Amino acid sequence: MYKHIRKQLNGILRPAGGPRGACSGTEHVPEFEANRHIRLLTFNIQVGINTSSYHHYFTRSWQHFLPHRNRNENLDRIALLLRNYDVVALQECDGGSLRSGYINQVQYLAEAAGIPYWYQQLNRNLGQFAQHSNGLLSRYRPLDVTEHKLPGLIPGRGAIIARYGTEHDPLVLVLMHLSLSKAAQQRQLGYIRELIADYQHVVLMGDMNAHAEQLLTQTPLKETNLVPLPDTAHSFPSWRPEKALDHILVSPSLEIRRSEVVSYPMSDHLPIAMDVALPEGYLEKF
């Protein structure tokens, strides 16, 4: 019975032969500059819905299914923030369906923010009704970008891995949106842990739906030595932040120059920002 239900869900959420996202291409994207610090941002944009109260989850819930005239204005305001960063991780984007006015929101934000490279990962394909996606925006040309389906009872969660620098010692950025279920998070972070095991310079960023202490002490990430933001870096809900659900976790080899929760309430999550510098001696390899 379980296998039959799962097969039906897979057919709805991941139609065979359906689109798997889109990418800008790299021909016009500048080379990675290893002599600069990198400004990072992660932002769950809630498909462009401006939520500023719990009751909006009810009164504005229809915007998750139907277009709204103010959605692109909200995206334009988000783009004003994004233009200040070098690499951006986006969660809860729409890849171009009825609710977004058939606009690929990852591409829209990249172009509005003047960021040359974008990559959209389509995780849950509901056809014309919704194109649930993650997004990567980058001012630098990545060495390569791969997308990964994260394990879970219900399919539809994913991660993007972008590598910069050289093949033998890259800077590795993992962009993700984890499930709400703690059991699913265990499996998903176990999968991520295996992907990053052989790399020295790693950044995990995204909506992880858990506090940093839990992530780094009660999941497979405890086997890493990743450094979190302070416990006070609360990002949810945006109008009264009480929970630290959004994170940028970095390897000790990366110098954190600045980190903050950005007071920019355009979604039900606040964005998280961090400036990191590559380790001393890394530049000599280029």
Automatic annotation (TrEMBL):
- GO cellular component terms attached to this protein's record: membrane
Query: Which keywords does this chain's UniProt record carry?
Result: Endonuclease, Exonuclease, Hydrolase, Nuclease
Determine the domain of life of the protein's source: Bacteria
Check the record and name the InterPro entries matching this protein: Endo/exonu/phosph_ase_sf, Endo/exonuclease/phosphatase, GPI-anchor_lipid_remodeler
Name its GO BP terms in alphabetical order.
GPI anchor biosynthetic process
A Gene Ontology molecular function term for this protein is:
endonuclease activity
Q: Where is the Endonuclease/exonuclease/phosphatase domain?
A: 41-269
Respond yes or no to whether keyword Nuclease is given for this record.
Answer: yes
Pfam annotation, one family? Exo_endo_phos
What PANTHER family does the entry give?
Answer: CALCOFLUOR WHITE HYPERSENSITIVE PROTEIN PRECURSOR, ENDONUCLEASE_EXONUCLEASE_PHOSPHATASE DOMAIN-CONTAINING PROTEIN
Q: What is this protein called?
A: Metal-dependent hydrolase, endonuclease/exonuclease/phosphatase family
Specify the species.
Answer: Marinobacter subterrani
> What does UniProt list as this organism's lineage?
Bacteria, Pseudomonadati, Pseudomonadota, Gammaproteobacteria, Pseudomonadales
